[in-house]
């Protein structure tokens, strides 16, 4: 018997779909990982943060962890690897809401929407400067499924897109692709530096002060990937010293962002509470990938989607 524990709430219609489609599977919709050690769980469906090393030791029957997130950096990956436990994620389902979030912020800044909103509150009728996207350049760190969709939308607005990845291989939605080794030399020409990189040993703290010193003073830096891409103090310094024009941050070194953080009060910084991937269709899309993989699991035949290499972290 395959025992599946889902540790986050899902709608009743999704519960019925799962039990109806897979009658041979026992589903536990406890919405919590507490007490999981006594349930002989073979498959764990989780957002990831609740699976600690201590709990993992209790799950002696566990064979597969399905993470309903793209990032798996909160998982005890080393221990999972040692036990050869299958780890999969839902990479790809975030591309639509995240790409739309990035585009919304860029258009908002270019068309001076924050200033328009502020002037309305103050009942001020005054023209303001605005710009357009056509003819600009975007350097996209992490041109995978999400980065590729961001690139595709930006290309529709006449933006030249440069994808930057570990390998530098060709990606959809990019006019050009480079490797991490060439970030420094291309930064001076980028109007938008957009990161959707996951947290891995290769990407942690990959940007430092020297990178911001090479950016245009009119550039916008955007981080929608993970908060350990660059130290917060580096971003604060860059904004305070005018090394860049603006920063849009959806992820942070510490979350929730502490109230004492200078980022809250900087006029040239947009603080977003890690919401760019949220969508009413999030859980539905995640469960579709889970159902496909569960069919492979039960048939013991076929290839799993979105398998994570525990040593690499992606």
From TrEMBL:
Keywords: NAD, Oxidoreductase. It holds the Pfam family 2-Hacid_dh_C. InterPro entries: D-isomer_2_OHA_DH_cat_dom (IPR006139), D-isomer_DH_NAD-bd (IPR006140), NAD(P)-bd_dom_sf (IPR036291). Residues 103-276 form the D-isomer specific 2-hydroxyacid dehydrogenase NAD-binding domain. Residues 39-300 form the D-isomer specific 2-hydroxyacid dehydrogenase catalytic domain. Belongs to the D-isomer specific 2-hydroxyacid dehydrogenase family. This is D-2-hydroxyacid dehydrogenase. It comes from Sporosarcina gallistercoris. The lineage of its organism: Bacteria, Bacillati, Bacillota, Bacilli, Bacillales.
